Amino acid sequence: MPDPWQAPPISHKAKALARALGVPEMVGALLVNRNIYTVEEAREFFQPKLSSLIDPSTFPDMDWGTRLIAEALTKGGNILVYGDYDADGITATACLYHFLSRLGAKVSYVIPNRFSHGYGVHASLVEPFLKKGPLLLLTVDCGTSDLTQLEALRKKGLQIVVTDHHRVFHESNYNWPVINPKRLKEPSLLGDISGVGTAFYLLMSLRRCLRKRGFFRQRKEPDLKEYLDLVAIGMVADRIHMRNQARILISHGLYQLQHTKWPTLDLIKEFSGITGRHLTTDDIGFRIAPRLNAPGRLKDPLLVMDSFLSQDQQKVRQLVEVMESLNNKRKNLEDQLLRDIENLMQENPSNGLPCMVYHGEDWHEGVLGLVASRLVTKYYRPALLLRAHGQFLKGSGRSIPGIDLYELIKEQAPLLDRFGGHSGAVGLTMHKDYIESFKEGLVNSIETKVDQSLFQPKPHIDMELRLTELRFEEIRSLNLLEPFGDGNPEPVFLARGVEVVAKKEFGTDHLRLILREKDKIFGALGYGMLSQGHLAQGKVDILYTPRQDLFKGHEVIELRLVAIRPCLTPSP
User: Fold this and answer.
1) pLDDT, the chain, mean
2) Any residues with CB less than 8 A from the CB of 537 and at least 6 apart, and which?
3) How confident is the model at residue 492 (pLDDT cuts 50, 70, 90)?
4) Given this structure, which CATH class describes domain 52-228?
5) Would you state the pLDDT for residue 389?
6) Contact (Cβ atoms closer than 8 angstroms) between residue 200 and residue 233
7) Could you give the dihedral angle defined by the CA atoms of residues 532, 538, 544 and 550, in that order, rounded to the nearest 10 degrees?
């Protein structure tokens, strides 16, 4: 069997591209690995421009929806922004509500509660606003699949504009605008984009429409760049592929985040210890987004909106302190649930099954998806975790690359009360009497319809690079490729035959190593890799990403471990 840890050599094409750009050969190789072959493509990749954003009118129904909102705004109609409880939905709600309110609109907002309402449009949250008179309902990060609920509300006299990015189940003749990138005839024009990204294109369209109507002759035109930090947070939190339009928005959003005008974000940066330094998508994914998500996972997402919209600095600080406390509680709940499930796995082994499905009575619903993700990372199989709610089971699932969990769940639809999601993540509800039939059907579908080679992890390796060949200049040049994330992974290098000098655990699940190659010593951190600590002895092969850091005022190279194994082939 061939060694899966193989790195492609630097091609002549990569070397030529590097020479033309005046960058190290390493960078040329990384560009080619990401299907970037020309100088023009590379320069656009290095310096994404806001001027390259597509015309918002490219979206189906964008002009229709924009016109309805502009008319409601200019005629003094009531507008209700209906959001979602995760970071993408909250940032989208904040963007639209803030933009409309600063223009003098009669605008309100509502966000469903994960526990008392669940995802999607709920008439009970909308109907109280009907008492105020004619109403335009503007959804963000939801609404595409809520046809029945929205049609009932339309018949009560509401105007409706849906903005969303979730999968379109069936294209139909909607009775209202549905602004959704999944409806584009050529999705490649846009790439992947989230709820807040879709909302930002609506802001672009709405500002242009109002400008044409002369709305800004007597008032200042809003600068949409002020919302890009929120856009970046929502898109990174939703694991959007960082190519095409998403790369432009996130790149500029990270810059805006360093100079944010939102006191909430300044305080979260302070609490996270990232104030005053270069910010990355890791800072959003591991520090900022979890704090914004924690209230929606454990309590009430409205406190996040309150913090964004409050003018009282003391109140904002108090609310961010609550977010910090809830995030710490979330971490503890997540760790405890992971331990409980791994105990269940020992009692009821599922080693021979292609997926993990577990349910419990007292599990916290708000962390099921997070723990499912950790199980998938650790065991490399799809995982579904469900919590009992009376006669029903409700929960979340996560998958591995190449296995479309949504389509697999869809095949079990007759057993489900409700379900939704996309290829990598799903939510579902079923009667508890159907759980065994559901497991059996799901396992059968995976065993008969899924390529079983997908269960063998295939690590992404950009190139082989010995630790003693690392240079500060080349490490700095990797910044040209930021932002990193899905669709543009952080570069991963292979080093063979490295000696483990010392190892130590830190945190709850992390590994710290001291490594030696020839006469040089390197520090390495493996987040979530404590379970692989037994492999760290003697000579090892490692997959790693190099980082530049400061230690006692001196530049040092630190390694971020991706994987480790016993040495198979000594380094030359």
Assistant:
1) 92
2) 500, 503
3) very high
4) alpha beta
5) 87
6) no
7) 110
Can you read off the two tokens belonging to residue 349?
A: 């082994």
Asked whether the beta carbons of 197 and 245 are under 8 A apart, the reply is yes
pLDDT of residue 506: 87
CATH of 462-566, one of 2.60.120.260, 2.40.50.460, 1.10.443.10, 2.60.40.420: 2.40.50.460
Dist. CA 140–CA 69, nearest whole Å: 14
Report field, pTM of the whole predicted structure over 0.90: yes
What does the alpha-carbon distance between residue 304 and residue 511 come to, in Å, rounded to a whole number? 33
Nearest CA to 485 among 249, 202, 199?
A: 249
pLDDT in tens, 170-195: 666 789 999 999 888 877 667 789 99
Q: Hey, is 116 helix, strand or coil? A: coil
What's the confidence (pLDDT) of residue 145?
84
Residues in the chain: 572
> CB of 487 within 8 A of CB of 193?
no
* Tokens at 220, concatenated: 């200042």
CA distance 235 to 249: 9
Q: Residue 440, Cβ neighbours under 10 Å: how many? A: 11
Nearest-angstrom CA–CA distance, 350 and 193: 36
d(C-alpha 400, C-alpha 377), whole Å: 8
Closest CA to 444 of 481, 490, 412: 412
